[in-house]
């Protein structure tokens, strides 16, 4: 038999206070519980999972409530996994005006990402072009080796492959979509966190080698 609890018990299970749960329900981020008495509702496992997803979007990903609502609507729809990925990526990506990016930077990014199946307006492609632009000098040189860019691209693709493998492990569409969203939002944070930890480790190793 599945979980069936009152809102106070849901609060304890999910680690979210009752007032916040009620706020999420009002904002249509969390479905209301099943009304069993005039003033009493019961909640199940799906509410615990949804609260975990909402917290990932709002607290870890820093996604605005309105955007989180749009992302969560994909979970409750029949949209494809590919569509869910696009919505999740958009939720954690800043809006970038492609016309403000130099064609040369976009061309350089596309050279690094040769063979990748991505749309021209992919937020990652545009953000990468901004980085390329920031490194580009007036004479067109970057002062950054191509191998540096290639290393980042390879690491990102390896992570994307791992993401999809984890999605494939999920038993049904709902859990797959949840993993796509969680992986996109929390994955960005995790990748940056491991990169910082790795940076310290590699720098420490280099320092020891010089001693």
TrEMBL record:
InterPro entries in alphabetical order: DNA-bd_dom_put_sf (IPR009061), MerR-type_HTH_dom (IPR000551), MerR_fam (IPR047057)
SMART domains from the UniProt entry: HTH_MERR
Molecular functions (GO terms): DNA binding; DNA-binding transcription factor activity
Coiled-coil intervals, chain numbering: none
Gene source species: Cryobacterium adonitolivorans
Source lineage: Bacteria, Bacillati, Actinomycetota, Actinomycetes, Micrococcales
Domain of life: Bacteria
Keyword DNA-binding: yes
UniProt domain HTH merR-type: residue ranges: 7-74
Name of the protein in its database record: MerR family transcriptional regulator
SUPFAM superfamilies: Putative DNA-binding domain
Keywords carried by this UniProt record: DNA-binding
């Amino acid at each position: 038999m599945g979980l069936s609890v009152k809102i106070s018990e849901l609060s304890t299970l999910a680690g979210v206070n009752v007032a916040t749960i009620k706020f999420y329900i009002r904002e249509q981020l969390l479905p209301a519980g099943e009304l069993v008495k005039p003033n009493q509702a019961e909640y199940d496992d799906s509410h615990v999972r949804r609260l975990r997803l909402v917290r990932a979007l709002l607290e870890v990903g820093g996604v605005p409530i309105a955007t989180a609502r749009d992302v969560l609507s994909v979970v409750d729809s029949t949209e494809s996994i590919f569509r869910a990925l696009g919505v999740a990526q958009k939720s954690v990506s800043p809006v970038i005006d492609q016309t403000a990016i130099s064609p040369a930077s976009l061309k350089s990014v596309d050279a690094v990402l040769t063979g990748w199946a991505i749309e021209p307006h992919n937020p990652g492609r545009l953000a990468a072009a901004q980085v390329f632009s920031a490194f580009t000098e007036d004479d067109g040189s970057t002062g950054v080796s191509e191998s540096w860019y290639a290393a980042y691209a390879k690491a990102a693709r390896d992570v994307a492959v791992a993401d999809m493998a984890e999605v494939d492990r999920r038993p049904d569409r709902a859990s797959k979509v949840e993993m796509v969203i969680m992986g996109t939002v929390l994955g960005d944070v995790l990748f940056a966190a491991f990169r910082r930890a790795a940076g310290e480790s590699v720098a420490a190793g280099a320092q020891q080698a010089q001693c």
